[in-house]
Amino acid sequence: MYIALIGDIINSKEYLNRNEIQNLLRNKIDSLNNKYKKDLKSPITITLGDEFQCLIKNVKVCFLIIDELSLYLSLEGVELRFGIGVGMISTDIDEGISIGADGPAYWSAREAIQIVHRDHDNRNTSTYLKITDENNESFFNSIVRLQDLIRNNWTQTQKQFVYEIISDFGYEQIVPRTLVETMNFSSSQVSNRLASTAIRQYVTSRIELSKQVSLEDI
Question: Which domain of life is it from (predicted)?
Fold first, then answer.
């Protein structure tokens, strides 16, 4: 069982600086491939200029990749959408590039991203999770939609704050004292930003959803 992730840039052809955006995407993907190498069965690979895909071993890492990529690009005014498919891969897997493999996980991811194309709640929803033979899909996606709503409604300043936290600490170490020591903010500023972004509640829901979509239970 694997997590297939497919993503693309929303309305990419409308950007006048499309080449610059593609370079930003490529550089961030290279960084994430290095950072999460042990959790990637097949690396994040750009399949077309604005589309990318990968195979992931860990559900939580899938959400981390989505958060880092979406926040990083949104700071440049660029929005992404994602389709997540959980299931089997029925072909050989190239561990050096995410091209050529296929099976239910990828079929589900492709269907999931098409669902986001059709039903995005005025761009408040940018992710859909589809699991092969899973009866809880609607429930899981009700949580994903709420998570997307929170993330997509952060201001640019809030996105920068959350991006720095998640890229540095992941989901596990959002401790005010640690943030004060590592970020250029006072204790009160950190407390106010943690409250205004609801980042601790957001990451807790990511962690708990990851546990519910455990590959061993599917």
Answer: Bacteria
CA 6/CA 175 separation, integer angstroms? 32
Q: Which two tokens stand for residue 84?
A: 């997540």
Query: 36 Cβ partners below 8 Å, 6+ apart?
Result: 56, 61, 64, 65
Residue 78 has pLDDT above 70, yes or no: yes
C-alpha pair distances (Å), 57 with each of 14, 35, 113, 128, 166: 34, 14, 20, 18, 19
SS3 17: coil
| Residue given tokens 């297939």 in the structure block | 4
Burial class (CB in 10 A: 0-12, 13-18, 19+), 169: middle
**Spatial CA neighbour of 39 closest among 110, 102, 95, 107:** 95
pLDDT digits (tens, 9 = 90+) for 93-136: 999 999 999 999 999 999 999 999 998 877 789 999 998 766 78
CA neighbours within 13 Å on the CB side: how many for 120? Answer: 17
Which CATH class, in words, describes the domain spanning 2-217?
alpha beta
